[in-house]
């Protein structure tokens, strides 16, 4: 082993020692790191000439330079010496570029770009900060996507390590710094990735025009059908509303309210049926922000800088008639689901109703809550079809239920069936309805477990006079007298789920 290799080996040990001390004793960590830096380069490792010296392709040397520079970013940042953070970040990125790609390369780059961007922001270089911070966020997004694809279900409930918590804090700091940069530069933040409402499978094909060739239909041994057939699982049955599927969320950078359909974010001028979107948003702005931010409203009505903005409210926009004519709507947006982006799950009906109560935004009507009678459990595959047929016969009559939002006695488009998870302790939601939640002493479901739909056999997608998107908008009617009565009772059904 050469003298230089021995020096690098000792420097590596010193860097590890300094890193382990940083949280509890930053001063000692600084002293030890300085020794390591001198062993790497007696002059300074934070110079532009570092990577022109002989041996610059030595992997251990480059790793030492990278790790020392990253730790120096942290120590200098704690001291408030952001000019030195910029020097150290530049050195770390230079070393990363020259090192062979490894499984940790991207996560390390995310951290260094975050340090660099934060230091740029602190020194007033907001445009430079924006570039570094955006790169950090984008790379982190790619890493998170890969981890979600690879993660096993068993790992979901694992305990977060100190490193996980530190990364989470750093990610929040990067996002907050990026918000400041957008505000300072006046730049428009990029729109977040679209999270489409998932396709809902038909519980069964009701015949006629209820399904199309590309629709999903459950098999008779599907998990939801097996649960429904056990004679004890509670099923919540709701009216399926015929409208334009919309999702409402907050931009994580600007806290601007965003509206999406199934494929993209929409605006007022996109189609005549959306001409009143902005007006409706303004009317319900405070309530929507409160719902979507998890209650993170500032005293002045703005968004707290560190709010999670993690929820998406899905519903049907029913300004224009599609196939079913509605003559007595409680509003032009009927909410049907609330999605938690962090958990990648939908709220249970009780949580959903409790959060929506008092918002002024109506929710879809519950037709009934019931268990399905069963002659037997399902110990054998051969019984599935018989039990499936039994459930079908019990449900078909519900397709003739009069729609809550029609005054002509017309039937529903179809029904949506939901099974929430097994009863567990209710999550302490940060919502306007905290007092209501506190009154509920009994445990309650937190998440949706299964969802399916059944559509009437005579349902026609579009109308005899053409598909809704190609004909003149036929505006539907809000019945304000009915709305006042409906809003009093549509959330109260949550108590029936206890």
From TrEMBL:
Residues 234-423 form the RNA ligase domain. Gene3D superfamilies: DNA ligase/mRNA capping enzyme (3.30.470.30). It comes from the Eukaryota. InterPro entries: Cell-binding_unc_protein (IPR052732), RNA_ligase_dom_REL/Rnl2 (IPR021122). It holds the Pfam family RNA_ligase. This is RNA ligase domain-containing protein.
